[in-house]
Amino acid sequence: MTGEHLRIEVSNLTKRFGAVTAVEDLSFTVEQGMITGFLGPNGAGKTTTMRMIIGHVAPTSGTATIGGRRYGDIPCPSATVGAVFDAAAFHPRHSARDHLLVYAAMGGYPASRVAELLGLLGLAGAADRKTRGFSTGMRQRLNLATALLGDPRVLLLDEPGNGLDPEGMSWLRSFLRHLADEGRTILISSHALGEVQQIVDDVVVIRQGRLVASGRLSELAGSAPPVLVRSPDAAVLARTLMENPPEGVAAPRVEPVQPGELRVHGLDAPQIAELAAAHRLRVHGLVTENASLEQLFLDLTTSDLTVEERGSAR
Amino acid sequence: MRRLIKAEFRRLLATRMWLVTLLVAALLGGGLIGMMTIVGPENFDPPMPGLQTEAGVRSVLGMLGFTAFVPAAIGTLAVTSEYRYRTVNFTFLFAPHRWQVLTAKLVTYGVAGMLYGLVLTGTAAVAFFGAVAARGVSLGMPTGTVIELLARIAVAMVAYTVLGVGMGALIRNQTAALCVVIGYLYAGEMLLMMIPGINLVYPWLPGGATASLTDFTAVADAMSQQLSTDPVHLLSPVAGAMVLMGYTALASAAAVLRPMRRDIT
Ligand SMILES: Nc1ncnc2c1ncn2[C@@H]1O[C@H](COP(=O)(O)OP(=O)(O)OP(=O)(O)O)[C@@H](O)[C@H]1O
Ligand SMILES: [Mg+2]
């Protein structure tokens, strides 16, 4: 790995397949050393965009560069960028080791690197089995092993969690975290925010080939998730919260859900509990609604408004 | 480029297919030619000139030309299996200059085709001379000429392997590509001959060029007899070789140029 600056830059990328516009005027950047989630519903254009970044698909217009270079102009591409696409990209009659040795030869990496990766990805025991009999989890590991042969600093992973069981998913998350902690730039696509929410730093959200949102996940989600409050004094509590926010905090938005239940936006659970106690109001339950990120994602990808439009409409 | 060729050889040798293919070559070369020589072309149905004539030797050895579909299919699979099993995802990731990948395949499979041709004609030579000696026939062709004929057949096998690679690159779908390649070699050219006037073109088609390279006129003669047209005049062996090389060059160019801009989705 070199210390070169390796940011992924997508600018005004458009791809048409005949009458279908898969990606339209898409621009975003992926910063070095971060895990960026590339999100969008099925058919949004994630795979097409990632394939344009590595030159598998020729853009109709626009450019995609890694460290300022088009993929084909990178001197030793497999030592700079690794990518994983389908759940199976191996010859069924090759063993995992055969497969890796072919690509090690292609990239000019020693056989010892193959053995190392088989160990790192927990495939040592299955190394000499034909890939035909591999489970989804093993295929994903072998895909990752192939992408990592050249110890690349940039990784593009297209829905690597597809078909993994919860255990496999949690292994994948910690493995990717480990890779990112080594300073790698990772772009990981998913159609479900929940799948990657725990590991991504940034997100790029697209829908119908266009950018809907991008930036820090925490900023997109807003300051605090809403809190569901159950209280027999709901009406009084609502007024109290709005009239007496803590020092330096804007007045919260309080939404009655049903008698005895409120949804509070803009305050966190401890702040609500403190205020209620100070005003001697009873609170029977406080639940922070973390699902809101998923909701945000759904809003972003299903409504017709972009974030800016939504912002100005408020 | 050296790395790419090394990788292609690794890919080729990783499965048993190469062994099976060479066994097939030995079976077709040694087995087929041995059997035909033992039986003797004069006992074929319909009878053909015996081995004591030059035409007899040529018709027996020329049969090897019909096995060209094997190396052609191997060459085709070299490209189509990459698309079928999607290894092309990794291949073009590791080697984004696609022409280099296809050039490496052409080189690798050119060598493989040569090995196929050598095993095919080598075993054929052993079986042929063995059977001739066993039957005590005096050959109608000098030994040196027989060997030259076999060498020309080996060259044709290299050409067909490379043609296969080109066709695989043009038609990425494995089944479709195999159907086109084998179908054309087996039946397509014959069917074309049915069209009046096409027989004038036959010498310039791959099959006709191969026939002139390998001095194998049986098909052309049978064809003109059946259609009761004027006899088809094949090109000279050298011209046939040039025409076949022309097709090989076209196929190679197609193999290298065609995948350049096609999207991998
Ligand atoms: N080769 C192709 N020919 C025609 N249309 C295509 C091709 N590849 C993709 N598309 C279309 O482009 C659009 C974007 O597809 P893409 O696969 O990039 O989406 P995606 O975000 O990866 O979806 P998913 O979550 O289902 O994987 C879709 O409408 C798809 O049908
Ligand atoms: Mg996709």
What do these coordinates show?
The complex is a heterodimer of chains A (314) and B (265). Chain A is α/β, with parallel strands linked by helices and 314 residues long. Chain A has 2 domains: 8-217, Rossmann fold; 227-288. In chain A, 33% of the residues lie in helices and 25% in strands. Chain A is built from 11 helices and 13 strands. Chain A has helices at 46-53, 96-107, 111-120, 136-148, 166-181, 193-196, 217-220, 234-243, 269-278, 292-302, 307-313, and strands at residues 8-17, 20-30, 35-39, 61-66, 81-84, 154-158, 185-190, 202-207, 210-216, 227-230, 253-258, 261-265, 285-288. In chain A, the strands form 3 sheets. Chain A has a 6-stranded mixed β-sheet, with helices on both faces. A 4-stranded antiparallel β-sheet of chain A has the order 11-12-10-13, with helices on one face. Chain A is elongated, with a radius of gyration of 24 Å. Mean pLDDT of chain A is 87; it is low at 305-314. Chain B has 265 residues and is mainly alpha-helical. Chain B has a domain at 2-186. Chain B is built from 11 helices and no strands. Chain B has helices spanning 2-14, 17-39, 54-62, 69-84, 88-94, 98-135, 143-170, 174-194, 206-213, 218-226, 237-257. In chain B, helix 4 (69-84) packs antiparallel against helix 6 and helix 7 (143-170) runs parallel beside helix 11. Chain B starts with a helix and ends in an 8-residue tail after the last helix. The model of chain B has no long low-confidence stretch (mean pLDDT 86). The chains are: A alpha/beta (314), B mainly alpha (265). The interface between A and B is medium-sized, with 38 and 25 residues. Bound molecules: adenosine-5'-triphosphate and magnesium ion. Residues 46-47, 158 of chain A line the site of magnesium ion. Magnesium ion (MG) is lined by residues 46-47, 158 of chain A.
